């Protein structure tokens, strides 16, 4: 047994120090980024924020809405082949949508079905994720999908440490998804004791990914996944070195979020549930298998109307962070930011006031 004595940080453990800036208006801030990739030859331009591939955030309706803002939706893994085919036939913004898959029976067949229907160019990203990206089977699987789709942008995860970030990148991933136990609907830390504070995971994995470069001058990238509960968390993830940010909870509770609408004592709610919650496993597989524990929970989120209002608030908040730290572009966040470690209790109490 070994103890790692370094203090690891979550978004709540830090604030960003303001810096002198000569910027005149928030309007001057460029939030779009353009990326080249380690394996895929595509160049991608957009706002690198992604709605998670959960039933209650990665919906077709979310993709229609977010693509207007050049943001990505990772479609739920649980859409059927027919549902996906119908959607891809109509949807014409491949840069802003990801096909999602795990390593269960049927996932690769679904991808083969899409390829057979010649619809693979209707999405630029493939989001391959499993709760535990440390499995050798998963690493090999990423290599297999890379062979099938040599020019797609492959996102693979989830992991939280540098050595696995490197391994996934070397095995065919362009973007490594970082986060274990950080999700708002996730109970992995409570059930298994496994996890890693999200901001430190981002800082360490970004450092590893950015150190791997290709001969055409591109490098590995990372996507922070989970644990963002306010626009400030998104800013902190980018300041910590995340290239992309995925969130489920920030995109939950809206008209466009999947998940059922529930009326309780006259109040309208939307369901938000973890992909490994009893609700999701029962809905998508018929039951929770006896050898598995559910590592997710279900929440009811007060209905918040259309997601567009949130998108504008998020973009405005990021522009404001940029002006506080003197960053003209989102790309400059990590170079300009200095984090201050703060008393988490103070941050928690501020949140109560905000709510
Ligand atoms: P959030 O944005 O809600 O904090 O986190 C979203 C992320 O939580 C997802 O992208 C996914 O990686 C993770 N997640 C979603 N459902 C579950 C679950 O049931 N169990 C676990 N362990 N993680 C989940």
Helix percentage range? 25-40%
**Span between termini:** 41 Å
CATH class descriptor: Alpha Beta
Instruction: Tell the overall outline.
Output: globular
Q: How many helical stretches?
A: 12
Q: Please, what is the average pLDDT?
A: 93
At CATH's second level, what is the architecture? Alpha-Beta Barrel
Q: What is the CA-atom radius of gyration, in angstroms?
A: 19 Å
Q: In total, how many beta strands? A: 15
Beta-strand fraction estimate? 15-25%
Q: Looking at CATH, which topology would you report? A: TIM Barrel
Compute the number of structural domains. 1
Within CATH, the superfamily carries the name Aldolase class I
Structure, explained:
- With 355 residues, the chain is of the alpha/beta class.
- The chain has a single domain, classed as Alpha-Beta Barrel (TIM Barrel).
- 34% of the residues lie in helices and 18% in strands.
- It is built from twelve helices and 15 strands.
- The strands form four sheets. It has an eight-stranded parallel beta barrel, surrounded by six helices. A three-stranded antiparallel sheet has the order 12-13-14. The chain has a two-stranded antiparallel ribbon with strand order 1-15.
- Strand 4 (49-51), helix 1 (60-67) and strand 5 form a beta-alpha-beta unit.
- The termini are far apart.
- The model has no long low-confidence stretch (mean pLDDT 93).
- The structure holds guanosine-5'-monophosphate (5GP).
- Guanosine-5'-monophosphate (5GP) binds next to strand 11.
């Amino acid at each position: 047994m070994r103890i790692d004595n370094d203090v690891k940080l979550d978004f709540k453990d830090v604030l960003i120090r303001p810096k002198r800036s000569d910027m005149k208006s928030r309007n001057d801030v460029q939030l779009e980024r353009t990326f080249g990739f380690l394996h895929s030859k595509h160049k991608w331009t957009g706002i690198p924020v992604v709605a998670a591939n959960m039933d209650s955030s990665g919906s077709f309706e979310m993709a229609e809405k977010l693509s207007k803002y050049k943001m990505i939706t990772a479609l739920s893994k649980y859409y059927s082949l027919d549902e996906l085919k119908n959607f891809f036939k109509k949807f014409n913004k491949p840069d802003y949508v990801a096909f999602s898959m795990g390593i269960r029976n049927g996932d690769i067949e679904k991808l083969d079905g899409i390829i057979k229907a010649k619809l693979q160019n209707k999405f630029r990203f493939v989001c391959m994720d499993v709760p535990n990206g440390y499995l050798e089977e998963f690493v090999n699987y990423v290599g297999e999908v890379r062979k099938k789709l040599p020019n797609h942008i492959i996102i693979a995860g989830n992991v939280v440490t540098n050595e696995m970030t490197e391994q996934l990148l070397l095995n065919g991933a362009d973007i490594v998804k970082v986060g274990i136990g950080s999700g708002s609907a996730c109970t992995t830390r409570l059930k298994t004791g496994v996890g890693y504070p999200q901001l430190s995971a981002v800082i360490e994995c970004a450092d590893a990914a950015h150190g791997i470069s290709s001969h055409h001058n591109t490098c590995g990238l990372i996507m922070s996944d989970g644990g963002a509960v306010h626009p400030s968390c998104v800013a902190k993830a980018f300041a910590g070195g995340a290239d992309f940010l995925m969130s489920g909870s920030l995109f939950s509770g809206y008209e466009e979020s999947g998940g059922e609408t529930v009326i309780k004592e006259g109040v309208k709610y939307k369901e938000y549930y973890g992909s490994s919650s009893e609700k999701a496993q029962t809905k998508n597989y018929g039951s929770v298998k006896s050898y598995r524990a559910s590592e997710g929970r279900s929440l009811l989120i007060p209905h918040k109307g259309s997601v567009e209002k949130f998108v504008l608030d998020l973009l405005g908040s990021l522009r404001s962070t940029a002006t506080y730290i003197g960053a003209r572009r989102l790309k400059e966040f990590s170079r300009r930011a200095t984090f201050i470690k703060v008393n988490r209790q103070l941050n928690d109490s501020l949140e109560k006031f905000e709510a």
